[in-house]
Amino acid sequence: MMFHVSFGSGKREAEIRKIATSDRTTAVILAAVHFEWMLKRAILKMGSSPTKDLRGQLEGVYRMEKKGNQDGYKEVWHREVGSRVKNASLQTVIGHLSRIQSHALNVRGKVVHGNGTVSEAHADEAIDLFLGAGEKLRDFASKRDIDLDTRLKTRPKSKVVNP
Q1: Is 122 exposed, middle or buried (0-12, 13-18, 19+ CB in 10 A)?
Q2: In angstroms, rounded to a whole number, what is the distance separating the alpha carbons of residues 64 and 77?
Q3: Distance between CA atoms of 121 and 125, rounded to whole angstroms?
Q4: Is 105 left (phi over 0), alpha (psi -120 to 50) or beta?
Q5: Residue 22 DSSP label
Q6: Among 56, 69, 77, 137, which is least packed by CB within 10 angstroms?
Q7: Given this model, what pLDDT does residue 70 score?
Q8: Where on the phi/psi map is residue 87: left (φ > 0), alpha (ψ -120 to 50), or beta?
Q9: What is the pLDDT of residues 87-145, one digit of tens each?
Q10: Distances, alpha carbon 31 to alpha carbons 71, 85, 116, 117, in Å
């Protein structure tokens, strides 16, 4: 239920912070899922492509940057949002994107895949980075009168009109 749109992203962030006081490992995983959920939601809500097409594009995106022929979140964000909105690169909107990539996603990987241990301090930083990025995405959308905590509206394919 926590990741149902009606739960609310702010409430979810508070709940994850509460969980972090007693179970940082679970909180790291939940915060990472929250970040990715918010990023995809922002792209879906603010993008220009038809919703169905954009959902299809995002189904195969699991990393921040392009790898091989598969776009990452940065490329999809730039194409759908960043190129249309002034000062809206993903780095500008989130602020700590490089730290999320170099630290928080690494902590998440260690927790999820069991590749080493994670100190409380590193877990706390990852949680803060993920949740802070979610807050910034929500604020960015809100300043454009877009509520990430509401249902998606379908954007149909644009019709080409012959002159």
Answers
A1: middle
A2: 10
A3: 6
A4: alpha
A5: T
A6: 69
A7: 87
A8: left
A9: 899 999 999 899 999 899 889 998 998 877 888 999 999 999 999 999 999 999 999 99
A10: 23, 27, 19, 18
